Structure prediction request, 269 residues.
Amino acid sequence: MAIQEVLYQVTDTIATITLNRPERLNAWTPELECELKANFQRAESDNGVRVIVLTGAGRGFCAGADLSILSNLSAQARIGSECNSAQKSVLLELRSDYSYFTASTKPVVAAVNGPAVGLGLVMTLFCDLRLASTTARFSTVFSRRGLIAEHGIAWILPRVIGLPNAMDLLLSARQIDADEALRIGLVHQVLLAQDFREGVQEYARDFASNVSPRSMRVIKRQIYQAMLQTLPEAMATADREMVASFDSDDFQTGIAHFLSKNRPAFTGR
Prediction:
């Protein structure tokens, strides 16, 4: 029986997707990519899932492409997978590898438990939120392999950490630790390694339990659309969405929760 290269588990409305090649620090393979997309689609289509967590098995998140197989792949296979994208984004620009993470209607949290290098770093950047263990390490690595800034990282990294920091990490391909990643805004929380998985679940559970799924869905779409919009376009989008939210069940639930102080029971409608 073939070993699953990606694992899937749902607990408390949180879907945890785990890259599962621990003996290779979860290095990328074509099979891993196809399984990853299939599991994102599974989480997206499950109404019982409100938050998606992406992490790695063992002591690594993802060490980038598996160099033991990379040289045997054709250029076309390295540039794009034959797998269909897991989501169909409102924006054509966000339908490719690995930007389809952003097309999910649910918040995607990268739980970086160890090295996130090359393509592994790209994966974290297209997640909506990033938490790091104290054992996490980050590197773009591309320039030290004779490669260029792959898979849209030249677009997303400056938007996350600013142009000077992105230039530094992309040109030098130096490795940084979790503390430096926090300082430059690459991650927004660093958790102790021994408490990491529990801390990630607690963080995700707050979203799943206390926040309107409808609000998260719309706000996430607004943010990524706004990156490609003018200010007047973004303002017009917000005006339309605000009017629509007044008619939603979750708005009525949110008001009732505020007045009664009871735990909200959002439906996502």
